[in-house]
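Much of the work behind modern protein science is quiet bookkeeping, done one molecule at a time. Below is the pair of lines this work produces for a single protein:

***
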Amino acid sequence: MSPQPAKSTSPAATEPGEYSAEERRFLLELAHRAINAALAGADLDIGPVPDTLRAARGAFTTLTLQGQLRGCVGYVFAVKPLFETVAETAVAAAFNDFRFTPVTAQEAPRLRLEISVLSPLQEIDADDVVVGKHGLVITLGARRGLLLPQVAVEHGWDRKTFLEQTCHKAGLPADAYLEGARIEAFTAEVFGEE
């Protein structure tokens, strides 16, 4: 499965979670090193990886430059070890997010990164969606849209608007979530750089 672009422009979150400060720092540094290696056309030297980062997890890497979204790509599903997912999605966000031109060597040192590690998807009723807690995936036929939990908070959306915007992201009518589209939710541990 290929990485999926997503929308996020949130400031770095610092809530406690599953990963320690050292593990978070390792992943953020790995993401920067992966982008720099890709720019140099070099192999990425990952080095020793903490065992806790070897479990397969879905994750998104978000890049901002001077406070503006510069790329965001990730895996919804846990298809690879987390450290590999972060390295791959960082490179994809930098160079393969179709919404942006590829990151340049001049921009790379100024990028700010945010990582969202996803829980498994669970089907959910529209009335049970909690803004600020849940990210959403809405699917109908071959169309699928995803928004990270922080997006609704950043835009001040209520539940209905969040559901409608996720439908819009999928290229579906705003009310598709009421008309048979599948709604799945996930939570995310979000951390990044100031």
Q: What stands out?
A: Confidence is low (pLDDT under 50) at residues 1-15. Residues 21-40 form the longest helix (20 residues).
